[in-house]
Specification:
The complex is a heterodimer of chains A (115) and B (109).
Chain A: E1 4-7, E2 10-13, E3 18-25, E4 31-37, E5 44-50, E6 53-57, E7 64-70, E8 73-79, E9 87-94, E10 105-106, E11 110-114
Parallel strand pairs in A: 2-11
Antiparallel strand pairs in A: 1-3, 3-8, 4-5, 4-9, 5-6, 7-8, 9-10, 9-11
Chain B: E1 3-5, E2 9-13, E3 18-25, E4 32-37, E5 44-49, E6 53-57, E7 60-65, E8 70-75, E9 84-91, E10 97-99, E11 103-108
The chains are: A mainly beta (115), B mainly beta (109).
Chain lengths: 115, 109
């Protein structure tokens, strides 16, 4: 399944580093999402983009900065992270069409460890 | 507040049947999703229910009762590859997805 790809798959960074996560969807979808997944916790929605416009920012700290240059690509820029930010970061996309369920399709995630 | 409850972990035997429950309290309801997530992999879509009743798809079935705020995922003829986490998510009145913490299913030979 290569509908939604994410790179890198694993990332270890220090608290002073700057890094970026990349997501690309090949499904022709109009919406893209960033989620944080921590062990034994529900998925936490971080950001939503519809047609390249950010429509959701769930009180995410400014050390996480999203970028959506077009409807197929999504980035998450990371700066001055904390150890508690260590988690699996999932990207998803959905058609965002009128009528019917708006099923989200996920990438494999980036496993982030902050030292 | 909005809440989705699922058991944290379940164990079942290969070849058997298992039912994973999900109860929800949300501001409005516009459908319920089930996803499967193998360790280290992407969540993958299993089913969507918006009307009461049972939806069958091969070995997997999903049931919804909107009046009870309740759904279950039924897995038949369990295989070792069914070992995974199963995520329940409800679409609320704002069309936002509210996620449960997932149920880790362990299949034993």
């Amino acid at each position: 399944e290569t509908g939604v790809t994410q790179t890198p798959r694993h990332l270890v960074m220090g608290m002073t580093n700057k890094k970026s996560l990349k997501c690309e969807q090949h499904l022709g979808h109009n919406a893209m999402y960033w989620y944080k997944q921590s062990a034994k916790k529900p998925l936490e929605l971080m950001f939503v983009y519809n047609f390249k416009e950010q429509t959701e920012n769930n009180s995410v700290p400014s050390r996480f900065s999203p970028e959506c240059p077009n409807s197929s690509h999504l980035f998450l820029h990371l700066h001055t992270l904390q150890p508690e930010d260590s988690a699996l970061y999932l990207c998803a996309s959905s058609p965002m069409l009128a009528g019917g369920p708006d099923t989200q399709y996920f990438g494999p995630g980036t496993r982030l460890t902050v030292l | 507040g909005q809440n989705i409850d699922q058991p944290t972990e379940m164990t079942a035997t290969e070849g058997a049947i298992v039912q994973i429950n999900c109860t929800y309290q949300t501001s409005g309801f516009n459908g319920l999703f089930w996803y499967q997530q193998h360790a280290g992999e992407a969540p993958t879509f299993l089913s969507y229910n918006v009307l009461d009743g049972l939806e069958e798809k091969g070995r997997f079935s999903s049931f919804l009762s909107r009046s009870k705020g309740y759904s279950y995922l039924l897995l038949k003829e369990l295989q070792m590859k069914d070992s995974a986490s199963y995520l329940c998510a409800v679409v609320d009145s704002n069309y936002q997805l509210i996620w449960g913490a997932g149920t880790k299913l362990i299949i034993k030979p």
